[in-house]
Input
Amino acid sequence: QLQLVESGGGLVQPGGSLRLSCAASGFYLPYYAIGWFRQAPGKEREGVSCITNSGDITDYDDSEKGRFTISRDNAKNTVYLQMNNLKPEDTAVYYCVAGLQCVKSWYANEYWGQGTQVTVSS
Output
């Protein structure tokens, strides 16, 4: 079965950190660009960051720059999103996607994960 599985979400206090993982099952993740999206309650889904198969990174939103870092470990078939100095407005379901290139469109991808909840609250 071809799928992406996110993990690492949870409840964290403001200023805390989480590292999300995106693991591929049934296909070779290093071939793909991997993006992270998020959707907060009552808001539209938005792109967070993306890394190409060659390691080039695109950050889609200025609010995450300097706080979120995307990386990939091809040997483990996994992509990570390190999130530091988390804020309540970062609360959302975080999704990873796999596509042929980094694009900000959710639908221009080939695989989608089910999401992992991140809640930032004191």
